[in-house]
Design brief:
Distance between the termini: 91 Å
Largest sheet: 7 strands, antiparallel
Length: 213
């Protein structure tokens, strides 16, 4: 891969104690917000579109955006599902179907998750980055994506970075824990559910008044 072109970093979104920044290639011209398609996040419960931005650089395009949402449905491992859905949504909105798109980098900490995917589209380089962090005492999910298509050295400069310290991931709720148990150990889950049902029925029958002769 050719070395990345010169770039400047700007704040794409910010949380309590951290900022998600984006590398924008030198010479890129930002587009008016009205010219950028806005992704539909209405099917994601509680999700809010925080920002949508785009630039045109010589021979390349750059698109980026961030979404926030409640963490009540978060569970360890679900970030991979979020990355897959964000990849599909970002490419669909940009009208791209890159060839040989695959993950080339992953950087996870105990609080944040990042992925890089690369491929080609009609001979042009395609680079897609995702960053996931958690904000504030409610552990709100903050998710950003950045896409570049065009010159390989230009796209190599389009990177996301989490500067500062994110809040830790939330603990899974009781509902989420039950769903995880059912998925990972279905026999144990349903056995426990059946035992609970039997215990409740027995309690009801024990408290039920018996007819006297």
């Amino acid at each position: 891969m050719p070395p990345p072109a010169e770039s400047s970093r700007l704040a794409l979104s910010a949380g309590d104690g951290f900022t998600i920044t984006l590398g924008v290639p030198a010479g890129a011209v930002e587009l008016p917000a009205a010219e950028l398609p806005r992704p539909d996040v209405s099917r994601l419960p509680g999700a809010v579109l925080l920002s949508v931005r785009g630039w045109n650089a010589p021979g390349s395009i750059v698109r980026a955006g961030c979404v926030g949402g409640p963490s009540s449905r978060y569970a360890p491992g679900i970030e991979e599902v979020l990355f897959e859905k964000a990849t599909w949504m970002t490419l669909t909105r940009a009208g791209l179907q890159p060839e040989r798109l695959g993950q080339t980098a992953a950087h996870d900490t105990d609080r944040t998750f990042q992925r890089t995917l690369e491929g080609t589209d009609a001979g042009a380089a395609v680079r897609l980055e995702h960053a996931l962090a958690f904000d504030g005492p409610d552990r709100t999910v903050l998710f950003c994506s950045a896409l570049c298509r065009g010159d390989a050295s230009t796209c190599a400069a389009v990177t996301l970075d989490i500067a500062g310290t994110s809040a830790p991931p939330p603990r899974p709720s009781l509902v989420v824990k039950s769903a995880l148990l059912a998925a990972e150990m279905p026999m144990v889950f349903f056995g426990a559910a059946a035992a609970t049902f039997v215990a409740v029925v027995a309690l009801i029958l024990w408290r039920r008044p018996y007819p006297r002769p």
